[in-house]
Amino acid sequence: MKINSANISNTAESNKSELSFEKLSSGKKINSAKDNAAAIQILSRVLSEQGGSVVAIRNANDGVSYSQVAENALQSVSDNLIRVEEFAIQANNGALSSNDRKAIQSEVLQLQSEIEQTIESTNFAGKPIFSGESVEFKVSASQAGPQSLNINVSDVVEQLANFDVSTQLKAGQSLDLAQNLREQVSEQQSEVASFSNSIYRSINANQETQIASTATQERIESTDYALETAKNVSSQLQQDISVALRVQSNALPSGIEQLLN
């Protein structure tokens, strides 16, 4: 019975040694579900969270690029509207001749054409930015809703068509119109800036989540080399002792028999 117990003990220590060697070789504490079933489930959730954060950051970066394109286009429109204002102020001068006013009107028409072209042609990856439709970006791996942006400047070109400096009175009215349109564009710029800031916060939050989940994965998955090396040495030593005891146990009857003879 003692020899059988030694054999069982030696087999157990051999299994422990193999398990430690596997962990040392792979660098992972968990190589199969039998190593730690609960940890496998936690690790699966952590890896899912990491994957979700990666995709969310990719979406958020698209949102940043989208807002940058929109911001540049709105700034161009705003700059042109400032020039329209300046022409309206210039036209609000009783000393101007009709030819002077025609020249100013011609300049304004050119600016109007540039504004219209900017609004109609600005797009992101082929998608028009100033279509008036809301655009959504899923920027969080959690259940939180997507970030949305809706830029509406569709009436700017339409209202600019009413710009008229043919008389001093109309020049004053056109000045009010230009100022109102610039304020509308300014409000849209603020919306884009707010959206962009929100996207950047989401990116930072996702990056922090990635760092935390990576640390958790490392803690769950990575082998503690000092601990596993000590376990492996201990198992090997236990096996050596078991073998020595078995050899000694087998030799004992032979020694007794020799003494009896």
Which descriptors would you attach to this protein?
two-stranded antiparallel sheet, 261 residues, 4% strand, 77% helix, f41 fragment of flagellin, N-terminal domain, two-stranded antiparallel ribbon, 2 domains, mainly alpha
Can you put this structure into words, describing what you see?
The protein has helices at residues 2-26, 37-91, 98-121, 154-160, 168-221, 225-260, and strands at 123-124, 127-128, 135-137, 147-149. The two termini are 26 Å apart. α1 (2-26) packs antiparallel against α6 (225-260), α2 packs antiparallel against α3 (98-121) and α3 packs antiparallel against α4 (154-160). The protein folds into two domains: 1-27 and 224-261; 36-222, f41 fragment of flagellin, N-terminal domain. The strands form two sheets. A two-stranded antiparallel sheet has the order 1-2. A two-stranded antiparallel ribbon has the order 3-4. It is built from six helices and four strands, in the order αααββββααα. The chain has 261 residues and is mainly α. This is Flagellin. GO terms for molecular function: structural molecule activity. Belongs to the bacterial flagellin family.
Fraction of residues in β-strands: under 5%
User: How much helicity do the residues have?
Assistant: over 70%
SSE succession = HHHEEEEHHH
Structural class: mainly alpha
The total number of structural domains is 2
Number of strands: 4
Could you tell me the mean pLDDT?
78
Write out the CATH superfamily name of the largest domain: f41 fragment of flagellin, N-terminal domain
What CATH calls the topology of the largest domain is f41 fragment of flagellin, N-terminal domain
CATH architecture of the largest domain: Up-down Bundle
Q: What's the helix count?
A: 6
The largest beta-sheet arranges its strands as 1-2
